[in-house]
Amino acid sequence: MIDSHCHLADQTFANDLDDVVRRARDAGLERALVILEAGNDAEAAQARRLETLWPEVRTSIGVHPHQAHQFADEPQRAVDIVRAQFAATSTARAVGEIGLDYHYDFSPRDVQHAVFRAQLRLARELGRPVVIHTREADDDTVAILREEGGGELRGVLHCFTGSDALAEAGLALGFFISLAGILTFPRAQALRDTARRVPLDRLLTETDSPFLAPIPYRGKRNEPAYVARVVATLADVHGVSPDAVSAETTANFHTLFRP
To answer: Fewest CB within a 10 Å sphere: which of 10, 17, 84, 217?
Structure first.
């Protein structure tokens, strides 16, 4: 199994990172993709510590739409920071998470667009995949991916909670769809129905930890070991064994991120 999206460099894990890694390995995880906020020195330091505990871990670096406002006057500065940190991080494999968030609108939408576009162009320059965050912004996210992708962009729609239409658009772009603990929630039947329509060879599993712990851990801090619950639910949805889902999603991860 692989947790294709987690925030192990978050300070929430600072005091027991060793135990979190041990539980992940005990649960059968091969590796995880850890998301880093570009320019966040504390996260970068914890990521370096994590590399010594779990050498198989890989990272993704980007400016989240919540932080896009910091680059309102100069979106290219966001790119410069990501590029420099990417070059200095041997485990870096993707640009992200990046995208649009109209739910909170912590950054003006035009600024979100500019910073998002700039980072997509960087991903194309680097030849790296992107990790996409989209919330209540699906039409604009897809439009920008189409405009900036140039037929070259690879990536994943992370923590997918969208519609059939968004899934179809993502698949048409050649993207993978990643499912998190929300898939296990009792009221998430519509999401499970959508997940059933996505071929296994285009799916990834994630925790987005420390957020969104799956059933039966809901309300607790999430961690990579709990991705096993997402795998089990996805197996039920597709009518196959958890081992089959683990094998397929692990292969998909390697195809996309080439770790």
So the answer is: 84
Cα gap 122→105, rounded to integer Å: 24
**Tokens at 112, concatenated:** 């979100």
Query: pTM, whole model, 2 decimals?
Result: 0.97
Residue 43 in 3-state DSSP?
Answer: helix
Residue 176 backbone phi and psi in degrees, to 5 = -95, 160
CA pair distance 208, 224, nearest whole angstrom? 8
Q: Rounded to 5 degrees, what are φ and ψ at 109? A: -65, -35
259 DSSP assignment: -
Whole domain around residue 181: which residue ranges?
Answer: 2-257
Task: Give the helix/strand (H/E) hosting 3.
Answer: strand 2-6
Number of domains in the chain: 1
CATH number of the domain within which 234 lies = 3.20.20.140
Q: Dihedral sign, CA of 220, 7, 54, 26?
A: positive
Render pLDDT for 132-158 as a digit per residue (tens, 0 to 9): 999 999 999 999 999 999 789 999 999
pLDDT in tens, 208-239: 999 999 999 999 999 999 999 999 999 999 99
* CB-based contacts of 169-176 (< 8 A; 24+ apart in sequence): 169/138, 169/142, 170/142, 171/198, 171/202, 173/142, 173/145, 173/146, 173/149, 175/132, 175/145, 176/202, 176/203, 176/204, 176/252, 176/256
Closest by alpha carbon to 109, among 145, 65, 155, 78? 65
DSSP letters along 55-114, please?
TT-EEEEE--GGGGGGGTT-HHHHHHHHHHHHHH-TTEEEEEEEEEETTT--S-HHHHHH
Q: How many residues does the chain have?
A: 259
